[in-house]
Amino acid sequence: MRVAYAHSQSHPTYSSSTKRLVEPFVREVSKVFGQLELLIPNGNGPTQDTPAPETVDWAKQVLLRVLPRKFLIGAEINAFQREIHVAWESDERGKRVVVFFPGPSQIKIYHELVKDDAVEEHKLVNASSPDEISTRLRWFFQ
Amino acid sequence: MSVPASSNVGEPLGNDVIIYRAFSDKSYRHRKRNKVRSGAYLIREDEIADGLSVGLTPKDAVKYLKTNYGYCSISVGAVHALPYNLKVRADNIDPGHAFICNLPLVTSSDRHREEAMFVAGELARKSKIETCDTFIPNGGHQPIED
Do A80 and B106 touch (CB under 8 A)? Predict the structure, then answer.
């Protein structure tokens, strides 16, 4: 399923949503989706990292449902071995969250807490909904 | 994931040796924060038989790359101090080159994914950025815009 999204000052629309979301789709957030689209090379052939278009669409669908949207600002997006990795890192808080999209319908979340230059906690979970990403990002931004 | 070491892989290097990891991708380092990012230490499926490529000098670190976005350094002792029996081993074919062996592979299982993320983060934290600019052997550093 292709996900359509648009940002405008007045009426953002999200065709993938079952209900209209009122939170504005700010430019910094649209940058995240632009970066996802750039993972599919335009003209050049795919590399060993290039994810399938279905995986890119899946990542868009999931990230569109992460609320509040401001959590997406600052996310680093990379392709690795046909997977999509979306990472948040904070030196100040000693926290790292990486959301993996290995393929369509798959979400894995890794989180890590570093204190005094040592990893105090780290865990990988298989997520079943975007809500779990929002919950983990709430922890990240605390 | 247990993968037999290839014949390219030699003896472990001493803990006091400094090794250099080249950045083949911009995302391997954070220029503004002057930090190595964990992606620099995620091993790929086609590297797993030998290990992650490192050089014994900056020149050796970049010599097999078409382009680079700088490089970092780390002591062999810091690598050997990490779990999962990580070892830095000599390259039997190229004396200026070495491999970080036994790195877990992200894509093989959930357990390995977690281990790979943990250990890549540790390696990145213990590494020191040498430059975020393109390193040209015999030509110095070429500034690049991110």
Answer: yes
CA distances to A22, B50, B61, B98 from B93, rounded to whole Å, are: 61, 12, 15, 10
Shortest Cα–Cα distance, B114 to chain A (Å): 6
Q: Which of B36, B106, B111, B123 to mutate to test the interface with A (most CBs of A within 10 A)?
A: B106
Its pTM stands at 0.88
Min Cα distance A127 → chain B (Å) is: 12
Q: Which of left, alpha, beta for B85 (phi over 0: left; psi -120 to 50: alpha)?
A: left
pLDDT of chain A, 142 residues: tens digit per residue? 445 444 444 444 445 555 455 666 778 888 999 999 999 887 777 888 999 999 999 999 999 999 999 999 999 999 999 999 999 999 999 999 999 999 999 999 999 999 998 999 999 999 999 999 999 999 999 9
- Residue A32 CA to residue A1 CA, distance in Å, equals 19
Q: Which residue of B has its CA nearest to A82?
A: B107
Q: Letter for the amino acid at B106?
A: V
Helices (H), A1-142: 27-38, 53-64, 130-141
Instruction: Give the Cα separation of A56 and A58 in Å (integer).
Output: 5
What is the distance in angstroms between the Cα of A126 and the nearest Cα belonging to chain B? 9
Q: Do A124 and B110 touch (CB under 8 A)?
A: yes
